Amino acid sequence: MSGHNKWSQIKNKKGVADVKRGKVFSKMLRAISIAAKSEPNQQFNPRLRSAVETAKEYLVPLDNIERAISKASDQKDLSEMVIEAYGPEGSAIIIEAITDSTNRTISEVKKILSDQDAKFANQGSVLWAFDAPIKGNAEAMEWKAKFPQSISEESKAKLEGIIEALDEHDDVQNIFTNTI
Question: Measuring CA to CA, which residue among 68, 91, 94, 72 is closest to residue 81?
């Protein structure tokens, strides 16, 4: 009678969904905390307003959002960082992270990159290929590739694997590439 216990099946599916939702919630709340550090009022902080709207789209509870904003002044140890890397066929990768330990995050990202046959790049060696995001403008908060690069289907699959592995890391917020 294997597979007869319906509750066991529901519990397993729900558990997987809850873990994914928890990771998304923690990433959203970290982004809100970083944005609220400089100005906790959404009316005067477009970056915070954008982060809160994104969190609401992902159905993050309002209590959690308000708690993240109120704790932002207490969390002096959180910092933003941009990590640069090269993927298959020399494709450029920019990784945005929010962390409480930059050394730990860098070493963990380096490990993920080396496991996926990607290369960690020195500071500034990838940024030249992108237009930087405009911090005050909620619509231009992403890195835009100056020189989009086309790569083979095999390399695209490898790049997707790299992005998925990096996205699993709790500190990683956004990943940008210059591929088409």
Answer: 94
The H-or-E segment that residue 173 falls in is: strand 172-177
**Closest listed residue to residue 156, CA positions, set 120, 180, 128, 127:** 180
Domain boundaries 79-177, CATH class: alpha beta
Q: What is the C-alpha to C-alpha distance for residues 151 and 5, in angstroms, rounded to an integer?
A: 47
Token pair of 17 as six digits: 């969904």
Tell me yes or no: is domain 6-71 CATH 1.10.10.200: yes
* pLDDT tens digits, 50-106: 889 999 998 999 998 888 888 876 666 778 899 999 999 999 999 999 888 899 999
Give the residue range(s) of CATH 3.30.70.980 domains in the chain. 79-177
pLDDT digits (tens, 9 = 90+) for 154-163: 999 999 999 9
| Closest by CA position to 25, among listed 70, 71, 58, 72 | 58
